[in-house]
Amino acid sequence: MPKKAKEIWKQVDQYFTDALIAPGDSFNAALDANRKADLPAIDVTPLQGKFLELLVHATGARRVLEIGTLGGYSTLWLAHALPENGIVVTLELDPHHAEVAIGNLEFAGLANKVDLRIGPAAESLTALAQEQNAPFDFIFIDADKASYPEYLQWSIKLSRPGTLIVADNVVRDGKVIDPESPDPHIQGVRHFTELVAAELRLSTTVLQTVGSKGYDGFAISVVLH
Fold this sequence. Notes:
Layout: H1 3-20, H2 25-36, H3 46-59, E1 63-67, H4 73-80, E2 87-92, H5 95-108, E3 114-118, H6 121-131, E4 138-141, H7 148-157, E5 164-168, H8 184-198, E6 202-211, E7 214-223
Parallel strand pairs: 1-2, 1-4, 2-3, 4-5
Antiparallel strand pairs: 5-7, 6-7
Helix pairs in contact: 2-5, 3-4, 6-7, 7-8
């Protein structure tokens, strides 16, 4: 992408963030803590976090599943949207990332709304299915892209009619259109898209996004039956 376009995207992101996102100490502190802990700078943006919060509000979700916690910045937005009896079950592979996330959630006073599980997502998802709790109302997938097809299958199993499933980073700077890409992340997203397209239980769209994190997009699905 031209450097000038990226700079405009960043400035527009900042304009709307300043205009629409009220300053929040806990959110800013989480981003600072993530940077100081040398976590990858791949958190959702404030506007994207607010987008997730609005979706949780709009769906009336009480049970939220997040696949990929990182430092808990997106988890904060999800938990912030929930009613008092709501819960976010969030899955994280890396113990260091999880430790940072726990600190951020405690600082924000939202740790009581979050069940953070550490370990390979496939194992955590298997355990969730075996627990036979109520299905999730909202699911956010934001982890290793090569495993998106597996995460989609689990998400459907753990959902109900009306559940909203949102998958981040599906455009990959436009590289998703390359069927010959050797990148496992690209191939993971392409396989995920093929599965979504063939799945009669889902109705799906993709929204391309630009902003301070570059060019990407969300896949948004509703479970029909």
